[in-house]
Every structure is written in C-alpha cells, then in structure tokens.
Amino acid sequence: MGLAVTAMILFAQFALSRKPSLLALACGTTFSALVFIPYLLTFSGVAPSRLFGGDPNASTYLWALWHSALPASYVGYVLIAAVEGTQRVRTARAASCIVLTFMAAAALTYAVYVWHGKLPPLTA
After folding, report:
1. Is 120 domain-assigned?
2. Is residue 123 part of a domain?
3. Contact between residue 73 and residue 31 where contact means Cβ atoms under 8 Å apart
C-alpha cells in the first residue's frame, strides 16, 4: 500500500511539474509496487502462495527485483534532475513511459515464474 500511495503522490507531483526526473521516480516506484504484488502472492507461508505456486526461489527473485528497482529509480531521479533544466515531458511520452513500466513489470515477473527453477537459488 505504501508503494502505491507513494507512486500516486509522485505522479501528482509529476502532473504539476512535468519534470523528467519525477517521471523516472514515479515509474520506478510503480514498477516496485507492481512486482510486490506477485511477490506477496508467492511468498511461502502466506495463504495465497498455494494458489499462486509459493516457490522460495521465485519469491526471492521477485523480492530482489522490487528492492533493486526502487533505489535505482532514486539514482535515476538524481542523475536526471542534475541535467534536466527546464525540459518538460509531453503527455504522449509520459504515457508511453507508464505503459512501458507496466510491461517491464509484467515481463520480468513472467520471466521469474517461467525460469525460477533454472535460476540459481539465492536462499537456502
């Protein structure tokens, strides 16, 4: 819930300023929120894990994805803010970035589900 609320606040700030750095931060937070949902549903010991195939390796990789994306989006925010100047993002470009964020989260989650048995275990 915290990631979803944070993403909403960041998108509101982006809508007002149209700054590329805020779009990067909002998309990174959204990505993390989207990957957190299947992580929670596959985490061993949680009731829905039986329904969604609670595999420790899959949940570990999903955890690594959303815990890596959030700090990376903060780094992106800082790097872009340093050079953005008065540049503003148009609606079409913002929409495509948001769609690509959803697609990346879905594709990487799907890849983890498909290849979790072939990926090296991160936990014992």
Report:
1. no
2. no
3. yes
Nearest one of 59, 53, 58 to 40, comparing CA atoms: 59
Kindly state the average pLDDT of the residues 92-105: 97
Considering the entire predicted model, what is its pTM? 0.88
Spatial CA neighbour of 11 closest among 95, 103, 71: 95
Q: In this structure, is residue 97 part of a structural domain?
A: yes
pLDDT tens per residue, range 42-60: 876 665 555 566 577 888 8
- Structural domain tally of the chain? 1
Query: Is 87 part of a structural domain of the chain?
Result: yes
Question: How crowded is residue 50: how many other Cβ atoms within 10 Å of its Cβ?
Answer: 9
For residue 59, the enclosing domain spans 2-115
- Which two tokens mark 57? 């390796």
One DSSP character per residue, 65-115 reads HHHHHHHHHHHHHHHHHHH-TT----HHHHHHHHHHHHHHHHHHHHHHHHH
